[in-house]
Structure formats: structure tokens, C-alpha cells
Amino acid sequence: MWLGANMSHEHEDANLEPSDDVLEVDIIIGRLIDGEATDADRARFERLAALEPAAWRRLALQQADRDHLARAYERATAAGTDVELPVRAAPRRIGSSWSAAAAWAAVVVLALAWFATAQRDDIVTPDEALARYREAPFIENEFEPLILETKEFEDGSIGVRFMRRFEESLWMSPEMAREHFDRERGRFGLDPSEIRAEQGDIAPPVETAEPGL
Amino acid sequence: MDGAQTETDLVVRAQAGDLDAQQQLWRQHRRWVAAIVLAHRPRGIDVDDLMQDVAVKLISRIETLREPEAFRPWLRQIILNVCRGAARQLKPTLSLSGAGTDDGDDRRDAIVPVSAEPSVDRTVGTPDVADRLMRQAMTLPAEYREPLLLRCVRSLTYQQIAAILELPVTTIETRLARARRMLREELGDEFAAGLST
User: Which one, of B137, B133, B184, B182, lies nearest residue A21 by Cα?
Assistant: First the structure.
């Protein structure tokens, strides 16, 4: 059976246009192993191989190379081909909007939309989950990763341990603040994600002259 | 309705903000996007990180595409820009570790090898044939590397590769033939054992 006998399309022009240093047979072999060969290509290869039997070996080698390379390619891009589109195109930056009630209202709307979308879609990889987290409306900024440690291994590879840093915002109702916020120490009694889950759809805070608690 | 028309319609819908069309468009094209990313990524940056950036750019800029029929070459240009941008950002990011300081001792290359090799299998001491071929492929000039990696994407025909790279099909064939010959000449009979003459 011919290698690459699956014909995906007919070439409009069966004539080959090999340039100076590319042999005609290389192009025909390429068509054969890529499933692009026409009947004319196969007939041509048979004629060439009859004159030079080594062409069969070249065909076999090229076929093997192609299969090996395709396998390596699959491995190298496995994670990349699972990447999904982000929920929103560009990260929203609300900046220093602590004093803007209107901005808070926008945050509420976007947060609800984000949660709804995040819960609807499947998250496949950690990087995908992180990408979605970056899009969340409570993310104010992301900082450059901070490299904590690099380590060289015996095989020459290098391990890098680093920290990713994000600036988040949240708000609490007066009742929640009394229950969960230690004003003196500036600490939460709950994890921020739990506070966000508990706050539900409470109204945005009223603008104050001193936004800090 | 032919395939090209369907794709153009999809692009137009995506430009209009149709989220389903955007998702469909991305899923249809991300396999070859990965090939271009792999061909042009800077050393030390993972394919999936760049893919994420490409996905963001695709959605945020698709409205700027003037000719929906030219979606593929447009997307390829986005990928190239993302890869170039990542290369520019590589140094400041790594400089946080103290490497590449003003003393002229640029140690970036000492950190980069974590993902510098094409193979994702970094646990094996001796690379297998596939890894060796991929490593060799990554040393080819970009004009050969790109079609060679695109050809690794199943179901991508010569004509589709030609459309992405905006080149004639005959040029794609010639470059593929040259690339494969260069690979084989570099590897010699190393991996030919077991093949009968």
C-alpha cells in the first residue's frame, strides 16, 4: 500500500517546481507522506524509484521522521492546545476607586457576571484557572512575578520557584465588618473568598471621606 | 456554503461580539496557533502561557480586522507580535532574581533552559528520537521551521498552510522538502536502524 495514499485534494498543477537544490523526488515524497499525493505523483515516484531503489528507503525514513516529529509536536503543544478563551478580553483595571460608589456598582455587576460565567464553563488547567482569576473584577493589579529561588539540577535543567502577586479588593457590610474584621490588627476573621461568598449582593459601600477602615 | 465562507461568517460574527462564535473560532484554530507559537516562542516561555496571551489578543483586537477573509494571516501576525512582546519582557522579569545584572554577566541563559528544549519531557536523561528530531527542527531557520511544525498539525493541508503563511503552495512544498532534507542530513543514519534498504 502506498504511504500517504489519502488524497486530500488534487493539485491544480501536477507539474513540480523544484528549485535549484531541492530534488523533485523530495517534493513527491513529501506529498506522499503528507497525504497530498495525486495518482500522477505516485506514478512519477514509481518511475523514479525504478531507476533509483534508494528512493524507497528515503520514503520510509521521511515517513518515520514525520511520525516522530508529529509525536514530539503533540507533546510540546499538549497544554497549549487546551487553552480556552478568557472570559473577558482585557483585564479590567478599576485602579484607585475606593471612593467611587459608581465604580463599586460596576464591580458588583461585573462580579456577578464573572461568577456566573466562571461557574458555567469548565476549567481545564491551572493556568487556565489563573487566567480567569486575573479577569475577576476584584483584581486591582498584578505584579511582576517575584523569583524566590533558582536551582540547578544534575541534568543541567534549572528549577525556578517564584511568587505571583495580585492586589485584590473586597468590601463588607457593617455587620460583616463587626463580625469578621479586627480593626486593631487589620486582619480578617475569614478568608477573602469566604467574605466575598458571604457578602452576596449587598449594596456597594457609601463613599466616605476616609476610605480606609 | 463552502468552508471559507463558513469561516468568514464565523469571523464576522465574532467581530460583532458573538461569544459562541469567538469560542468556536478559537477552538478551530488553536491547534495551528500552537505550531506558530512553538516556532517563534522565546526561550524560557511556555507555549501555553503564550497561547493564553494570543487568545486574549484575538478577542480584544478582532474588531480591528478589516478583511475577515484574511483571518488566518492576521492571527499569525498577532502570534508573532505576542512572541516578540514576550521576548522583550523576558529580561526584566528574570532580573528579579538578580540575573542579568549590570556587571555584564548576563545569566539569563542560565535560567532559561527550564523550557528551552522543545520537548516537554524533562525527566528523561536521554532524549528519544522524537525529542531529538524536534530539537533539531527548532534549529532550522524560521521559514523552514514554521511550515514543518504546521505540517505536524493533523488535518492541515498544504493549501491551508499556504493560506496561513501567505505563500504559494509550491513554496510550502519546497520549504517542507528542504526542511526535511536538512533534518535527515543532520541526523544521518542515526535513527535509520531497522529500516531495510
Answer: B182
Distance between CA atoms of residues B171 and B106, nearest Å: 39
> Quick one: cell of A168?
485584590
pLDDT at A104: 53
Report pLDDT digits (tens) over A47-74: 988 888 888 888 998 999 999 999 999 9
DSSP chain A: --TT-------S--S----TTS-HHHHHHHHHHTT---HHHHHHHHHHHHH-THHHHHHHHHHHHHHHHHHHHHHHHTTGGG----SSSS-----S-TT-HHHHHHHHHHHHHHHHHHHHSPP-SHHHHHHHHHTSTTEEEEEEEEEEEEEE-TTS-EEEEEEEEEEE-----HHHHHHHEETTTTEESS-HHHHHHHHTTPPPPPP-SS---
Contacts of B170 in chain A (CB under 8 A): 17
Number of CB pairs, chain A paired with chain B, less than 8 A apart:
176
ipTM over 0.85: no
pLDDT at residue A157, as a whole number: 84
Question: In percent, how much of chain A has pLDDT > 70?
Answer: 61
pLDDT digits 0-9 by tens, A84-113: 876 543 333 434 434 444 445 555 555 555
Min Cα separation A193/chain B (Å): 25
Nearest CA-CA distance, residue B178 and chain A, Å: 6
